[in-house]
Amino acid sequence: MDFSKDTFLNHLAPTSPFPFLISIERAEGVFLYGPGGERYYDMISGIGVSNVGHRHPHVVKAIKDQVDKHLHVMVYGEYIQSVPNALAKKLASLLPPTLNCAYFVNSGTEANEAALKLAKRFTGRTEIVSCKKSYHGSTHGSLSVSGNEVKKNAFRPLLPDVRFIGFKDHDDLSAITEKSAAVIMETVQGDAGVRIPSKEYLTAVRRRCDDTGAMLIFDEIQCGMGRTGTLFAFEQFGVTPDILTIGKAFGGGLPIGAMIAARERMKVLSHDPLLGHITTFGGNPVCCASALATLQVIEAEKLLSTVEEKGRLMTELLNHPKIVAQRRIGLMFAFDFDSAERVNRIVEACKANGVIGYWFLSNPHSFRLAPPLTITEAEIKDACRVILSAIENS
Ligand code: PMP
Asked: Whose CA is nearest to atom 10 of ligand 1?
């Protein structure tokens, strides 16, 4: 076993000068375990991934079964493979008829890249409208439509023809016009600190897109797959997008994303130009097996029906005068404090006492929690006791 800090710091490229730096040897359910027997509650699900917990036995079995049959056999879109077929059919059965066709990719940002390309190709337009404070990924296209200026400036020039509107700002909707190929937004903004729109706002966005012919893209990479209490967050707002992007928890712990739209629209990516969007590993059969098994777990264990109750219990338990504000939808939480420094102290104290909580990319004075949907009442109580004490002592 090599848990050398030196190797980690010198031979793995850093993303920040302050990595979290705990060592993990194995994971099971809501727990991560270190090589020295340390145990941590993963109250962030590896940033929105482990919605059915770590190494769910049904998911692990599906992965092993597929490994025993075949791994990669061909690039995306050529050979008929049983498990990707079954996954696409399952998704179609869970989504409205206008979202009946999935393009499998390898990550969240790739799903958004594909969505932007589909919208440009389908409408013949170039402009993309996105929201301030949004996060859509780190590749050039997704970064171009993300709202955080500080993260973007060093990488310009980015995509031209991108306009930003205020999320939840009705007045700004006039910026969506006949020039707009697409409007991309997170149904619930995640890295901005769990910003929840109203039904009226998303309905108005939908209407404006219908009036102007812009395609509406909902990015549910973070808020999808049961996180908010419904399989897809948009179900709670009564608004259906033209394109849906998913990732993170979709794969149950393996890397897979999807860009989902109507078959009639999706087909434009296959001509003029031929092979307009291609990927080697998208739809990898092992990742598809893991994703299909994850959907089966969500259904079989009736996880969605437990999310609201668990969310409410956590809200009740995490009640403290130092919390300035709290935003929650399902099991997706942001707790605002008076300073980023206090949030740091809370994260560190939680870590020292066996609980992982975290920050948000674009909202440093908020504390982030999003536990696996499989967490039990007893586990919630135990983890929240540690978190509450970290808040008390912060
Ligand atoms: N969209 C949203 C809403 C996200 O939260 C993320 C990841 N935090 C992404 C896109 C990018 O996903 P990935 O890191 O898999 O590229």
From this structure: 136
Rg over alpha carbons for the chain, rounded to the nearest Å, is: 21
Task: Kindly list the structural domains of the chain, giving each domain's residue range(s) and its CATH number in brackets, ordered by start.
Answer: 5-55+302-392 (3.90.1150.10), 58-300 (3.40.640.10)
Q: Average pLDDT of 179-206? A: 98
Q: How many angstroms is it from 348 CA to the middle of ligand 1?
A: 24
Q: 37 CA distance to ligand 1 centroid (A)?
A: 31
Cα(192)–Cα(336) distance, rounded to whole angstroms?
12
The model's confidence at residue 151, banded by pLDDT at 50, 70 and 90, is: very high
Is residue 107 classed as helix, strand or coil in its secondary structure?
A: coil
- Please count the other Cβ atoms lying within 10 Å of the Cβ belonging to residue 8: 14
Residues 6+ apart with CB under 8 A from 182: 115, 116, 119, 120, 123, 128, 129, 214, 215, 216, 217, 243
Binding pocket residue ranges, ligand 1, CB within 6 Å = 107-109, 112, 135-137, 186, 190-191, 219, 221-222, 247
Q: How far apart are CA 227 and CA 218, in angstroms?
A: 15
Query: Which residues, in sequence order, are CB contacts of 22 under 8 Å at separation 6+?
Result: 32, 34, 38, 40, 351
